[in-house]
Amino acid sequence: MPTAEPVSALLEVLMSTAAPEDFSHYPQPKPRLSADELPAAKSTQPIRSLDDLAADTFKSDEGLEEFLAFTYAERHRDAA
Questions:
Q1: What mean pLDDT is predicted for residues 14-34?
Q2: Taking the alpha carbons of 43, 45, 50, 56 in that order, is the dihedral positive or negative?
Q3: pTM, full prediction
Q4: CA 31 centroid distance within chain
């Protein structure tokens, strides 16, 4: 009867070079924050209305129309 290998043996990763003894020169990972902690850490405010999201991205209606026409054409370019 064949013997089953432990799962850890199947997940083994072989390294091509030896691991360095000193990891101090590598950037240290930032501590993970919870979903509740993230907004406070970034000093964000909740969105209270759609006006909070409004931005004057285009200087004129013509600029917006050009952008929309370009976007539509690019999205449908390969469909034809």
A1: 76
A2: negative
A3: 0.36
A4: 17
